[in-house]
Amino acid sequence: MTRSEASPRIAVLDIGKTNLKLLVASEDGWPLETLSIPNVPTTAGPYLAYDLAGLEEWFLDTLAVVTQRHTIGAVIATAHGCGAVLVEGDEPVLPMMDYDAVSPPEIDQAYARIAPAYDEVFCGISGAMRLGKQLLWQESAYPAEFARAKIYLTTAQYFALRLGGCAASEISQLAAQSHIWDLCHHQPSSLMRKRGWDRLLPERASAGAVLGRVSEAVAKRTGLARSTEILCGVHDSNANLFRYKAAGMADTSILSTGTWMIGFQRGLALDKLDATRGMVLNIDVDGENVPSTLIATGREYDLISRDHDASDAAVLTALPSLLALGTLALPSFVGDDGLFPGAAHRGRIIGPRPETPAEWQGLAVLYAAFSANRCLDALGSSKHIVIDGGFAANLPFARALAALRPSQSVSVSQSRDGTALGAALLWRRFSRTIPVSSVVLEAVTPLGEDECKRTLSAAYQSWISFSEHPS
């Protein structure tokens, strides 16, 4: 079959905090090709920022490569939360701020006074820099540029505009711990309205809706047909969540893992969300509430393991000795409290220190498994659990978590591209009538030996006690 005769495919631009990825998939979510590069922020501007021009160049160049092998019928972008661009026409008026940018103390103090309440936006002010705080900094420090802005686009919608689509907002991105959206009343947050920033938000569209066709310039540059659809993009973890919804697994407990570990569990009452314990509310692509936990486990794992590399077999062998010695890593190794109030930057190791690469990695595995277990408890998880993303490839982590939750089945996703594949499934979703079959899972066998399980459970209880009551 020639390229021109093949069924049309969808190209997904996946803008992650660590990597930039272009994935080509079938409309029912089967991956066909993936290319990626590191996503490196720039320090050349007034603050830590994304290299939007560089990202776009790579994306267009890579599209030009894949169009030689695939007939692309649609393009969609997916991106992490707390990223957005002030735009005039189709150009940024200021660089897109990286949420790890360090804000001036006066901005920190000013924002603490005006930030919307937790019961409006369902996330605190610590951790990643919220879009509300980014807007305050940009308006205060660069008033002339800010005044030129006509629209404010979350990252995925910015790239839709650049490709030829119309300007739009999308609910999963607006609601993703941004402080710019009132999740209870489904409107711009009180902060946005009081500051007059709500004027910058364009009309909302549903994720997967067609926003237009590729521009003539993009078609010429990439080889895409002018008829190629530009779709309304989506928040990355919500794209992953949609993948399971599309497969008929909406009620499953999902651990979406990478730099951040996000636990998703539908059905928890909103009054059970605790602002002091890493609990947030996400809104899915259909506007439904999804209570969640949000902690920087991926970052902490790297810090605890010290980037040591060991085989799964070696790590599994190291776990019993670590448990027997009582060696534990206690939170938090980043500047966010996470699951335990007051834990920010208080991370420490108790017990004999690890000596081998396998022991260091094993210590990180235990920390991540205990953190995930705590998240699932907070969300009231009682059904099937799926580990998706980077930690799905971490067998010791998966087996430890399965041992901690003996009454629940645990599976790992066989795809390492769940976010991009979830975004791909948004194409033509409104006409899909049956669940997709492209979500392939593998059951996890818990850690063996009853003694090991008992020791693991006891270690978890000790970890909770030490973390709740640090000396």
Discrete helix count: 16
CATH topology of the largest domain: Nucleotidyltransferase, domain 5
How much strand? Answer: 15-25%
Largest sheet: 7 strands, mixed
- The CATH class name of the largest domain reads Alpha Beta
The secondary structure category is alpha+beta
Rg from C-alpha positions? 22 Å
What is the fourth-level CATH superfamily of the largest domain?
A: ATPase, nucleotide binding domain
In the CATH hierarchy, the architecture of the largest domain is 2-Layer Sandwich
State the shape.
Answer: globular
Instruction: Classify the helix fraction into a percent range.
Output: 25-40%
What's the end-to-end separation, in Å? Answer: 68 Å
Task: Give the helices and strands, then pairings.
Layout: E1 9-15, E2 19-25, E3 31-38, H1 52-66, E4 72-79, E5 84-88, E6 91-92, H2 105-114, H3 118-121, H4 131-141, H5 143-148, E7 151-154, H6 155-163, H7 171-174, E8 181-182, E9 187-188, H8 190-195, E10 210-213, H9 216-222, E11 229-231, E12 234-235, H10 236-246, E13 253-257, E14 261-264, E15 279-283, E16 289-295, H11 297-305, H12 312-325, E17 328-330, E18 348-350, H13 357-378, E19 385-389, H14 395-404, E20 410-413, H15 418-424, E21 441-443, H16 450-468
GO molecular function: kinase activity
Protein name: Carbohydrate kinase
Family: Belongs to the FGGY kinase family.
